[in-house]
Every structure is written in C-alpha cells, then in structure tokens.
Design goal:
Elements: H1 6-16, E1 21-27, E2 30-35, H2 36-53, E3 60-64, H3 69-80, E4 84-88, H4 94-104, E5 108-111, H5 114-121, E6 132-135, E7 145-147, H6 148-161, H7 165-171, E8 178-183, E9 193-197, H8 198-210, E10 219-222, H9 229-241, E11 244-247, H10 254-261, E12 265-268, H11 270-285, H12 289-310, H13 318-326, H14 328-338, E13 345-348, H15 355-363, E14 367-372, E15 382-383, E16 396-397, E17 402-405, E18 410-414, E19 421-422, H16 426-432, E20 439-447, E21 453-458, E22 463-464, E23 470-471, H17 473-483, E24 487-493, E25 500-506, H18 508-515, H19 520-525, H20 527-541, E26 550-555, H21 575-581, H22 583-588
Parallel strand pairs: 1-11, 3-4, 3-5, 5-6, 6-7, 10-11, 10-12, 12-13, 13-14, 25-26
Antiparallel strand pairs: 1-2, 8-9, 9-19, 14-15, 15-16, 17-18, 18-20, 20-21, 22-23, 24-25
Length: 596
C-alpha cells in the first residue's frame, strides 16, 4: 500500500534517500546542504516534543514564520505527531494571527523569533486554547515561550517513556484526514480556513511529479510562503520526487540566491517576472552606441511580434531576424547567468501573467509555464507543460481534474484537488461546492478546442461602468505594468463610474532618475514621471475599445506594501483595501465627471 498521509510520504522519501540532499540553506554567509536523513531526524525530534506537550492527533498547531528549513521541521513534526498544521503569514498583524489561531483552535504555535512572539504575547488572554509558543530563533520565556532545543529535550524524555507512540501515530494516518488548514489571504473579506486533506496533498504530489513538471534531478528555488497553496503543492512534489529544495533568503535576494546556487526551476508569482523583465528592459534601453541602438530596435520589433501573436498571427521582418541573431541570444545568456546558469523552467501562478512577459521569456528560449489553481483546489487545476505551452492560457487540466464552464462563464471543477470545505462554515462551503462535488471558482474563463483553459477575470472583480459596460481590470493592469518599467502597481477604477481611471504607483529608483527628484513623493508629483505614465496609458489605450480606455490617473506619493495593508504576502494588490484607503485620490479623478 502506498502512502496514506503526508507524514507517511515524507518518511518514505527520507528512508529511500537518507544520504541525498533534501534542502540547501544559507548559514553565516555560506550555502549548506541538509540531507533527507537529517531533515527526518530533526522532524522526529520535533514530533516527540509535541507529543510531550500533549498534542493529540487531529489537534491544530500554528506556524508563524518565513520560508526556511525550520518551517519544514515544524510542519513535519506536527504531521508525524498526527496534528494539523495551520500556517500563518509572518506579515499578518497580531489581530489577524489571533483570529486565525482562535478560529482554528490551535493549542501550540511555532514562531520564527521574538518579533513574532511579541504579536502573540500581547493577545495571549484572547487565545485561551493556546498552551505555548515554540521559538525557532531565541531562548523563549519559560513554559509560554519554549526554544526549539527545549522542545527537543522534552521530546527525548518522552521517547524514552513511550518509544512506540510516534510510529503508531504515523501509521494511523488516513488519506481522508486533515493535513493542513490554509487561510485565504484574500484581497477582500474575512479569511476562511480551507481544510486540505492528506489526499489533496498526495494528489498534488502525484500530479506534479507524474506530468514531469518537477522531477528528482531538479533543484527548486523557493521563496513563496508556505501559508500559500502554491508553496504547498511544491512541498508535496518535493516529498514525492526527492528533488533538492533551495530556500531563498528572501524575495529581495531571490535573484542573487539563484546566481549563487544554480537552480533548475523557479516557481514565483508574476510580480517577480515583471521585475526581471523591467530590469532587463531598463538596462538595455539605457545602453549607448551600437549595442544600445540594437537593443532598442530589438524591443520595437518585439512589440510588433507580441501584437501579431496576440492576434493569432505570425511575425517576421529583416530587423526581427537581426534581433533574434544578435540581440536576444545575448539577453538570454545574461538572464540565464543572473539566475545561476542552469535554469530550465519558470513556473508562474497565484495571479495572471501578462502575455508580454510570457512571450519575452519564450522568445529567449525559456520554458515559462503558467498554471492555475486556488487555495480551495490546493493551487492545482491546470498548467502549461514544457513543449506543450499555449501562451495566454493556463494550460490543460491535470489528469484527474474535471473542468467545465458554467452558463454564466464561471469555471467550475471537481476532483481530488478540491478541499474538504471551509472550517466551521458549512453554509459557505455549500455555496461553493454543489451536491455533485463541483467547485465554483469565482473565475470567468473559456476552454479552447485543444483543452487549454483561459482565465479572463475574477467574477467578483469585473467592473460595470455607469454606462452598463463590463470591464476586466486585471488585463488592463497587467498591460500597463509591462508597458513601462517605471510603473510598479496599478489599480483600475470604474465600477459604477462614467469612465475608467487608474491609481498608479511607481518604482522609486526609476522615478527619481526620470525626474531628478530626491524623494519618492517629489518624483511622483513631477511632470516627467506623469508624462511617462501618460505615455504608457496612451499605448495601452490604443489596444482597448473606447469604453475601456483610461481617461484619468493619479500617481500616489508612495508604493503599495504588505506592511501598510495594500498587498497580500504573494504581492497581489488588495483592491478593496486600496479603493477605501485612497478614496480621496480616486474621487478627485471624478470631480466634475465629464472626461468625454
């Protein structure tokens, strides 16, 4: 019989590959390997410690930390002890942490450091079920704040008392048992606990490894937070394939870490690829002499190529032939070297990837594999596979996932990827999963004749102007962000309004350079920056029907951030939060209305 739980899958992998490298992490400036045997031994120690703390099978344990090896040790410790992991984004506020832990009924939580511990300590009285916090870094504070080492010591004592208990708990794992509770980070509303079963995770491992998307010889660079379902399917594939997981130091050091470690695969949200594209573009466009002239010519040709491909046509010209021979190979070599020289696949998910970005990586000869899924589907629905890529789609559904389009255009699906339901919310669960097991995604899409799925927008994000026209904002936002390296974030406004406008933030360094200003706020107010934003808008407007064209814009005096509450931990804009927070600026674009 195969594995019935994530804990069993993990133990099986560690047993087969004890001496192979499971993970790489940076310690004191140097990259160090962690074998599967080491990872399993540390996870066992953590599991014994949790048994000593009184964690019972089925009880919840939180993990409030960034993406690091210790996160996996805590996660697998919980799984081996029969518990259910509840990951929490380290960027969550104390109140958000308290809500999640209380809602899940967590009895213990792993916290990264003193900063995360402080979030919990201040609200301790509001979490009566929470017995203690285990610190990954730091010494702790008595029984309330235990260190990793203190918990391991308790575990060793427990193992001596009940030596067969841990094995019994692992063997008792069932495929229909809960593996983890993932709380929707959500761009709107209160987070809901998505109940993910062992079978959901095992199916993810089978699907990702079975399709060849990830395999045993891969080295995967990871920065995504494990509180996000995208990282969870990568974790499942890691255990399923035995690949090497490289833990990036942070998203800011992602590209540097890639250059140091030479991964073969990177999975990321579109914002990472947008930044890589804009960096290449800014550097090349600033070039001087013949090299700079050739790059600018190549990018003009690239724009024509993208336009033609978007219309389903081919494109060729003498200039484009020259660009493909003299310019793009050098760009590929430079970008490949920047990512460590071994990168083969870029996997994109979590939000729509702009077609221009996909066409750019594809033209350079990289596999840019856009996929689709939601937290409720363990991020697993469909993906473009190597040599089976159709840009502008999110690929074909994974084997075993049924997908169809409802009468109103909504994508619905069923299969082993669908969650058990929302924790403690049977009515909310019934709203999205019907009696036949079909899950309503809330996304609008279409399936072409070859089975490729295309997402056109979020059902709830569609904007309806006062003139009755429906507009898909994400497509416009993506087009603007890839039209100019100056633009950082965009929010399209227009619901119940006469015309479309946009709220824009800019890349600080580029804005200062363009304006000569000394601060972000000064640059945002400058005519030079406004002119560049207007130029990008004009180019996008030329591709849009009249009712979608952007009539006005405002450049904010700072960029969006997670800390200020405008971005999710995966760098998606919280649309509702932004429209409330910047209401004054938005209303200002409609003063006097007209803009005919």
């Amino acid at each position: 019989m195969g594995a019935q739980s994530v804990a069993q899958l993990f133990r099986s992998r560690a047993g087969q590959d004890a001496s192979r490298t499971a993970a790489r992490r940076k310690v004191s400036g140097s990259w160090r390997d962690v074998s599967w045997g080491q990872l399993a031994a540390e996870s066992d120690e953590m599991a014994w410690g949790l048994v000593a703390l009184g964690l019972k099978p089925g009880e919840m344990a939180g993990i409030l930390a960034g993406t690091r090896v210790e996160w996996t040790v805590a996660d697998m410790g919980i799984a081996l002890a029969g518990g259910v992991a509840v990951p929490i984004y380290q960027s969550n506020t104390p109140e958000e942490c308290q809500f999640i832990l209380d809602n899940a009924g967590a009895v213990v939580v792993f916290a990264e450091d003193g900063k995360q511990l402080a979030k919990l300590t201040g609200l301790r009285a509001r979490m009566p079920k929470l017995r203690c916090v285990v610190l990954m870094d730091g010494q702790g504070e008595g029984d309330w704040g235990l260190s990793f080492e203190a918990l391991k010591a308790r575990g060793r004592e427990q193992k001596a008392k009940t030596p067969g208990e841990l094995d019994a708990r692992v063997l008792a794992g069932r495929s229909d048992g809960l593996a983890t509770i993932l709380y929707t980070s959500g761009t709107t509303g209160v987070p809901k606990g998505v109940m993910i079963t062992n079978d959901n995770m095992l199916f993810a491992a089978e699907s990702v490894v079975g399709t060849g998307l990830l395999n045993r010889e891969d080295s995967h660079l990871l920065f995504l937070p494990f509180a996000h379902s995208f990282a969870q399917i990568i974790k499942a594939a890691w255990f399923g394939s035995g690949l090497t997981m490289i833990f990036a130091e942070s998203v800011d050091k992602l590209v540097d870490n890639a250059g140091e470690t030479g991964p073969t695969v990177l999975s990321a949200v579109p914002r990472v690829y947008e930044k890589a594209y804009n960096s290449v573009l800014a550097g090349g466009m600033a070039g001087t002499g013949l090299q700079g002239a050739l790059f600018r010519m190549a990018m003009r040709e690239f724009e024509l190529y993208v336009k033609a491909r978007g219309e389903g046509k081919t494109y060729s010209s003498l200039a484009f032939t020259v660009a493909k021979k003299l310019v793009f190979p050098k760009v590929r070599a430079k970008l490949s070297k920047r990512f460590g020289g071994r990168i083969v696949e870029f996997v994109s998910g979590g939000a729509p990837l702009a077609r221009k970005i996909a066409f750019f990586f594809d033209l350079l000869g990289f596999h840019m594999l856009e996929g689709y899924g939601l937290t409720e589907t363990i991020a697993l629905t469909s993906v473009n596979l190597p040599r089976q890529v159709r840009i502008g789609t999110v690929g074909r559904p994974f084997p075993g996932v049924e997908v169809k389009i409802a009468e109103d255009g909504e994508i619905v699906m069923r299969g082993r990827n669908i969650m058990r339901g929302y924790l403690g919310l049977p009515d909310a669960t019934a709203e999205v999963i019907d009696q036949d097991g079909w899950f309503k995604t809330g996304d609008i899409g279409e399936i072409d004749g070859d089975g490729f799925l295309r997402i056109t927008d979020r059902k709830k994000d569609l904007i309806k102007t006062s003139g009755g026209k429906y507009i898909a904002p994400q497509a416009i936002e993506g087009a603007l962000k890839t039209q100019s390296e100056l633009i950082s974030q965009v929010v399209v406004i227009g619901d119940k309004r006469k015309y479309v406008s946009v709220v824009v933030t800019v890349v600080e360094a580029d804005a200062k350079k363009a304006s000569g200003a000394g601060s972000y706020a000064e640059a945002a107010r400058s005519e030079a920056v406004k002119a560049k934003v207007q130029d990008a808008i004009n180019k996008v407007n030329a591709t849009l029907p009249s009712y979608e064209t952007i009539k006005r814009f405002v450049v904010l005096d700072r960029d969006f951030s997670q800390e200020q509450g405008e971005l999710t931990p995966t760098l998606k804009v919280k649309r509702k939060a932004c429209t409330v927070k910047f209401k004054k600026e938005i209303d200002g674009m409609y003063d006097g209305e007209s803009a005919d």
